[in-house]
Design goal:
The complex is a heterodimer of chains A (281) and B (304).
Chain A (H helix, E strand, L loop, with lengths): L2 H27 L16 H7 L2 H34 L6 H13 L2 H19 L7 H26 L2 H9 L4 H30 L2 H6 L7 H9 L5 H45 L1
Helix pairs in contact in A: 1-11, 2-11, 3-6, 3-8, 4-6, 6-8, 7-8
Chain B lengths: L1 H36 L3 E2 L6 E2 L10 H8 L1 H33 L3 H16 L2 H12 L4 H13 L15 H25 L3 H9 L4 H12 L1 H16 L3 H6 L7 H10 L4 H36 L1
Antiparallel strand pairs in B: 1-2
Classes of the chains: A mainly alpha (281), B mainly alpha (304).
Chain lengths: 281, 304
């Protein structure tokens, strides 16, 4: 038993080096003075300075944030509804179809989702005249469709591990079904909604393939802008932009994890105290 | 009146039907359009498609072309081969990592899991981009690797750099890098639940560590291996971004073919036919995945 952990630990070291060396290398070369990304030419922060004055990038970042905010919020609402329906309503017409529709976008190759959404928008414009062009609306709709299924899966698994008895007790005590939904079910799924919203937000902020098919002229999100630049090769200003994005996202994820961890441990402490008081009183 | 309807049944109908309608209109209908389109033909119209003007309205020329033109078959084989290799290497690297995470103390475990999840949240595109910087002929990584390889090679066959960029090797490498968390997380979830006393019992009865692994841990972790493997294989086989950035353009993967048929060649019916064929090729793995997911779900619900 003594030797195996050593092997596993070296595997872990190798694995995490594999995960992080490329990212660290990208960050280091963002401080390169030389225009060549691969050859070190001295330390400089010039690429970050240029970034701050690049209006094209700032505009794209703002647009991406708007789309991510809108799509994550709507995806959370729709996804929560789908998750509740699947976890709590056991019998309704089309239940199998709905559960299939919730799983399918998760495993559908992105190219196909992108092309099929684009075709839908083109045919809809042809038949009913809406959406009249492709841009903010079509991208947001495509992102909602894709990310609401993640929210639905998270909410559904949270609800199936939660106790139905509380909801039943509230019903027995005379609460209307929709009051139960608002007073009991929503607080129960709140943590799942938070992580679902965050996931939907980052998915939208990061998406290239589906956006590239559903966007139109004039609507350039940040990933689309980066995509069009990196196809031409590696440049230090993209390294600087990448470093900024990665640091912001990492800080956000770590902060969210810490906050949720603290909330979780406070809740379990409260529950323990309540139980202890109940036992002594 | 409205209030009573809402109280009794209306709220329930709303909760069900709103997401249902959304997914029907924006996911199922587009999918049906793609399937229908695969039986149409290209035309100089807007949208650029036409169906036969007599019953059955369907023509199967696109699918015949799929089999005739070796471009499509080769793209399929390249995709499945690359995705298969990526899945295998994800398993070989991810399995010991997942097992290692279950064997460290609780606080280390949380930190390591965080480190696995963190790259998964940061931009996919930028992680691929990070490798573009490493694979090029002049990068420190390529130089170091070349130096390492040259120590093995005889001096007269020494290389100045390894041609890694724009090759299938690069595609598989970056896929392994991008999809590794998808392998580690389900494997960890599976391995963490295993009963450690079984290992101890086997050790007490005289099994050597690798025998314990082979006879107990490995067979019990097969559901995790299947879940992780499919989570890597399915998206990898339809991948578009990675082959476009680091792949070999003359040996394209199927995602690239679909996108090119659609955007450059403006042959929507052909793009749809290739997409349908890709889905058909993925039907078995997808069905296997949903089957195992359902069984796992039932186990969870059965226990609760």
């Amino acid at each position: 038993m003594k030797r195996r952990p050593l092997f596993l630990i070296s595997c872990l070291c190798f694995g995490f080096a594999f995960f992080y060396v490329p990212i660290l290398s990208l960050m280091v070369f963002s401080f390169n003075k030389s225009r060549l990304v691969t050859v070190w030419g001295g330390f400089s922060t010039q690429w970050y300075g240029k970034l701050l004055h690049n209006e094209q990038i700032l505009k794209a970042a703002l647009l991406s944030l708007q789309i991510a905010l809108a799509s994550a919020t709507l995806a959370s609402i729709l996804g929560a509804m789908a998750g509740i329906a699947l976890a709590r309503f056991h019998r309704f017409r089309g239940r199998t179809l709905l559960s299939g529709l919730v799983t399918a976008p998760l495993i559908m190759p992105e190219v196909i989702t992108g092309i099929s959404s684009l075709m839908l928008f083109i045919f809809m414009a042809e038949w009913i005249g809406w959406p009249s062009g492709r841009g903010f609306t079509t991208v947001t709709i495509a992102h909602i469709t894709f990310s609401m299924t993640y929210v639905a899966v998270i909410v559904q698994s949270r609800l199936s591990s939660a106790d139905v008895a509380i909801e039943e007790a509230a019903m027995d005590l005379g609460a209307r079904p929709w009051q139960v939904l608002i007073d009991i079910t929503l607080p129960v799924i709140a943590p799942a909604l938070v992580s679902g919203w965050l996931l939907a937000f980052t998915i939208s902020l990061d998406d290239v393939v589906i956006t590239s098919f559903t966007t139109g002229p004039g609507t350039t999100t940040l990933p689309i802008l980066i995509w069009s630049k990196v196809r031409l090769g590696v440049t230090p200003d993209i390294n600087a932009l990448a470093t900024v994005i990665i640091c912001l996202v990492a800080a956000g994820v770590v902060a969210a994890a810490l906050i949720m961890h603290r909330a979780e441990s406070r809740r379990s402490r409260d529950e323990q105290m309540a139980q202890a008081q109940g036992a002594s009183g | 009146m409205v209030g009573r309807w809402f109280d009794s049944k209306g709220w329930r109908d709303i909760v069900i039907s709103v997401p249902f309608l959304w997914l029907l209109v924006f996911f199922l209908v587009p999918f049906v359009i793609v399937v229908a389109m695969s039986f149409a033909r290209r035309a100089e119209l807007s949208p650029p498609i036409a169906f036969l003007d007599h019953w059955t309205y369907l023509q199967t020329g696109n699918f015949a072309r799929l089999l005739d033109d070796s471009l499509y078959l080769r793209a399929f084989l390249t995709s499945l081969w690359n995705a298969g290799l990526a899945t295998l290497f994800c398993l070989l690297i991810g399995y010991p990592m997942a097992l290692g995470i279950t064997r460290v103390t609780r606080s280390w475990r949380n930190l390591l899991l965080m480190l696995v999840i963190l790259p998964f949240w940061t931009s996919f595109l930028l992680r691929v981009y990070a490798w573009m910087g490493l694979l090029g002929a002049n990068s420190w990584f390529n130089k170091a690797l070349t130096g390492l390889v040259n120590t093995i090679l005889p001096a007269d066959r020494a290389m100045s750099s390894i041609p890694m960029m724009n090759s299938n090797f690069a595609v598989v490498l970056v896929m392994v890098y991008s999809y590794l968390p998808f392998m580690i997380l389900p494997l960890y979830a599976n391995l963490e639940k295993l009963d450690q006393t079984l290992n101890e019992a086997a050790t007490d009865l005289g099994s050597r560590p690798w025998q314990v692994f082979k006879d107990i841990t490995l067979p019990l972790s097969i559901p995790g291996i299947i879940a992780g493997g499919l989570l890597v294989f399915i998206p990898a086989s339809g991948e578009l971004v990675i082959p476009s950035l680091v792949g070999n353009a003359s040996d394209p993967m199927i995602g690239r073919v679909i996108s090119d048929e659609f955007s450059s060649a403006r042959d929507w019916p052909m793009a749809s036919a290739v997409a349908v064929a890709l889905l058909l090729a993925l039907v078995l793995p997808i069905m296997a995945y949903t089957h195992f997911e359902k069984r796992a779900q039932e186990r969870v619900e059965g226990r609760a």
